[in-house]
Design brief:
5-stranded mixed β-sheet, 5-stranded antiparallel β-sheet, alpha+beta, single chain, 16% strand
């Protein structure tokens, strides 16, 4: 079954697309978050700007640039300046905390650089004569007290991330397969059952599991189709038996009619007019006999009741025999037959039932005769190709319309009942030709001849 692997591929494709989409979303979110967090460098920059813009006047006082002072105010931050020589505070903003020390040791400055003053995160800026310490509100920034990382961990971080990503994919795939294995297990017998239904097999599924309702409907459909097949076989058998019985029952009275009509036809004691009537009875009875034989043969071919004895035969010889037989009975030369087969083509062997092939060619020539009451010229040709041969029989008679040819090529089988069963169908002889050629693995095409007459082209495999 191709549908189950296709369904699995679809599930796997959706899984990988979901993973890729999830990865892209996560990456975009982390990137956006990282870009946003770049602003965390701002407090360090403010501290550096304060250190650069804090100037000493001629009187020895410290003055801060107004722009930086406003920036500190907008950030609700404060700043102090600790001198190198005395380690004491020489300058501070007005909003500096009241509990600041007057003097700071190196240890104090180290703690200020890494941590907090009175819970306020502090950031430092360097000056030649000291250090600037800026403090921000307690809940404004969070500082790492020990921001150190193992070097090997940083160096191997790309490999670690890739390995973790692969492990995540494998885990997600395993979880996906485990969670969906049950439905996949339920789908496989259903798809097999649908395929078996299409092939005319009877199916029976277990009506349990996730798809029990579908299994139930498939079982019901299988039962309906099986009942229909049984009823159809009964009808076909009854039809075939009826045709065979009628054909057998008609033969005896028809033989008596033909026998008495022949005697009347040859009786010199009756008038010429009566002999003509007897002759008509004989000819029409002969047509009825041929029609019954055709109907019986068509029925046997339809239901595979006609034995087909395939042997290697020369189709050229069969065509020549059919043509000769028709020429012998065409006393008035109303239906001359032109032999178009290449004189160099002496043998063209096919594996076939000689009697049935003869019958098919005979029906084609007889079809041209039956549909051209005013006479016509009939052409017979044979073309040998690679591994096949084409038998072509056509005439220059009245032919058929495009619609008629379309119907002859595509009309449902003569023996099969359909909505148009009440309409009279013609062309039983052509139906037999189709059945015979189909039984020999060949094809048949009906079309216009080059003379706008009727043409039938048969293709058969050669040996």
């Amino acid at each position: 079954m191709k549908s189950v692997p296709k369904l699995i591929r679809r599930f796997i494709g959706i899984l990988f697309l979901s993973i890729i989409l999830l990865f892209i979303i996560n990456f975009a979110f982390i990137s956006a978050l990282a870009v946003k967090q770049n602003s965390n460098g701002r407090p360090w920059k403010i501290a550096e700007e304060v250190a650069n813009k804090l100037e000493i006047t001629s009187n020895g006082d410290y003055v801060l640039d107004d722009y930086i002072a406003n920036e500190l105010k907008d950030s609700n931050a404060w700043a102090i300046f600790i001198e190198n020589k005395t380690n004491s505070i020489k300058w501070q903003t007005n909003n500096a905390p009241d509990n600041l020390k007057n003097t700071y040791t190196l240890s104090d400055i180290s703690n200020i650089t890494r941590g907090y003053i009175d819970g306020c995160p502090t950031f430092t800026g360097e000056r030649d004569d000291g250090i600037i310490v800026t403090g921000f509100p307690k809940d404004s920034y969070w500082k790492h007290m020990w921001p150190s990382w193992d070097y090997n961990f940083i160096a191997n971080l790309p490999k670690t991330v890739i390995s973790l990503f692969i492990v995540n994919i494998v885990l997600i795939f395993i979880i996906y397969i485990v969670t969906n294995s049950k439905i996949i297990k339920s789908i496989k017998p259903i798809t097999n059952a649908i395929q078996d239904l299409g092939n005319g097999k009877n199916v029976r599924l277990k009506e349990s599991g996730l798809l029990s309702e579908i299994s139930l409907n498939i079982n019901k459909t299988s039962e309906i189709l099986e009942n229909q097949r049984i009823e159809l076989r009964k009808k076909e058998t009854a039809r075939a038996n009826w045709i065979a019985g009628v054909s057998h029952d008609i033969r005896t009275p028809l033989s008596m009619i033909m026998g008495y009509a022949s005697q009347l036809k040859n009786d010199n004691n009756i008038s010429n007019d009566e002999r003509k009537k007897a002759d008509i009875i004989v000819k029409q009875s002969e047509k009825m006999k041929n029609l019954i034989n055709d109907l019986n043969l068509a029925s046997k071919l339809e239901y595979n009741m006609q034995p087909i004895n395939k042997k290697e035969v020369n189709v050229v010889a069969i065509l020549r025999q059919v043509v000769v037989d028709f020429l012998n009975i065409d006393i008035d030369n109303c239906y001359p037959i032109e032999w178009l087969i290449d004189d160099n083509l002496k043998v063209c062997n096919i594996k076939a039932d000689k009697v049935l092939i003869y019958r098919a060619i005979n029906n084609l020539i007889q079809n041209s005769i039956n549909h051209n009451n005013n006479g016509c010229r009939i052409y017979v040709d044979l073309i040998e190709e690679t591994n096949k041969c084409k038998i072509i029989v056509y005439d220059n008679g009245i032919g058929a319309t495009d619609d008629e040819i379309e119907k002859l090529n595509n009309t449902p089988h003569y023996m099969v009942c359909d909505e148009n069963a009440t309409e009279q169908r013609h062309g039983l002889g052509l139906l037999i030709v189709k059945q015979i050629i189909s039984a020999h693995n060949g094809t048949i095409e009906i079309k216009h001849s080059i003379y706008d007459g009727f043409c039938v082209e048969i293709t058969l495999p050669t040996t």
